[in-house]
Amino acid sequence: MELFKTWKKNMVLYGLKSQIGTVYRNNDRTTSFYDVGNFLYLAGELDSRFWEDFVRKYGLDYKIIISENTNWQDFLHRKVGLNSFTRYSFKDKANFQVEFLNNLVTHLEEGYNIVPIDNHIYN
């Protein structure tokens, strides 16, 4: 958990503090993976052997893999079968102006629709 102490992501900080999920470390404790739900956070030094062992043992089905370390990010971008995408951050509190948003929806011009943003629309 020491390798995550500089992280600012709420899911990581709260999850580790609350002992939610599982932390995996390599033998010399220079690399840690924090596995919580569909998220896998990678911290510390790049250890490709530890990565391969983890993937072989646990798999990556439905995992969103995140690292603040550029070495890990570069490594992940080179891995065949992994898709990179932009996601929105989680905030402590959402500040939606519900009345304003509802008003926009009710006054849409004919022929316009509101749809979820998917990979096709985003790119």
UniProtKB/TrEMBL annotation:
The keyword Ribonucleoprotein does not apply. InterPro entries: GNAT_acetyltra_N, GNAT_acetyltra_YdfB-like. Pfam families: GNAT_acetyltran. One of its GO terms (molecular function) is transferase activity. The keyword Transferase applies. Keywords: Transferase. This is GNAT family N-acetyltransferase. It comes from Streptococcus pneumoniae.
